[in-house]
Design brief:
mainly beta; single chain
Length: about 180
Amino acid sequence: GGGTVNYDIPLRLGWNFVSIPLTLASTTTETVLLPISGKYSKVYAYNSSDTVDPWKVYDLSLPPFLNDLSEINNTKGLWLYATQNATWTLNGSWPSSTSIALKTGWNLVGYPGQTTKTVADALTSIAGKYTKVYTYLAFDDADQWKVYDVTLPPFLNDLSQIQAGRAYWIYVSQDCTLTVTN
C-alpha cells in the first residue's frame, strides 16, 4: 500500500498485453482509458466466470450498446490495440493485497504486485494448482510469447518473472484464488 503514484505502461503500435497494477479512483472503462484517448481503438478482457460470453470488449468502432467491458481494475489482463506508440500513465495506489478468483481452465489476469517476482514466488498462493503461464511482450520482436510450463525443465521456460503492468494467461486445474500481496 501507500500513497498515490503514477505508473507508466509503454504501448507499441498494434496489440499489447497489459494490465493496470494500481487501485484507481474510478474503474469505469472510459475513465481508465482517458489518458490514451485517440491512441487506441479496442480493448478486450476475458472473464472465465462468464461461461456464456467470456470475452468482453470495448471497441470504439462499435455502437456503445455492444461494448460490454464496463470496468477495468487491477485483476484484469487486457488485450489493447494501440493505434500508435504511446505511454499510458495512470494515477492510483498500490493495493496492500489483491485476491483474483480463478476458474478451472484458462484465466486472463493482471498482476498488481509492486515487486517483480519469479513465477513460483508470484504464484505461491496457487502452488500445485497451475500448470502453464503465458504472456505476450509486444516490444520483443524476436520472441513475443513467453511461456512457463511446470512440466518442462527450467531451461525450456522463457517466462521467468511476473511483473506489474503485464497480463498473463494462467491455466489452473481447479477453481482457486490467486492472492497478490505488496
